[in-house]
Amino acid sequence: MQDIPAEDTPTYEMISRADTVGVFQIESRTQMSMLPRLKPCTFYDLVIEVVVVWQGSIQGGAVHPYS
């Protein structure tokens, strides 16, 4: 893990295209539909994207700033 760059641009380009089948946490249809809209380019962006889609965030009204 320590050898994997934290902010690997090609990886984030792939994620932003929703090319994430089989990638834990971002493989569901809902997650994949959000990725091209939010275009995460850092790990923190990706964390926000995952949290936004979680059911608790949606029910708690925390999605509004990001949708």
TrEMBL record:
Question: DNA polymerase III alpha subunit finger domain: which residues?
Answer: 2-66
Q: Which Pfam families match?
A: DNA_pol3_finger
Gene Ontology MF term list? 3'-5' exonuclease activity
One of its GO biological process terms is: DNA replication
Q: Which InterPro entries match?
A: DNA_pol3_finger, DnaE2/DnaE/PolC
Highest taxon of the lineage:
Bacteria
Q: What is this protein called?
A: DNA polymerase III alpha subunit
Can you name the source organism? Paraburkholderia bryophila
Q: What is the lineage of its organism?
A: Bacteria, Pseudomonadati, Pseudomonadota, Betaproteobacteria, Burkholderiales
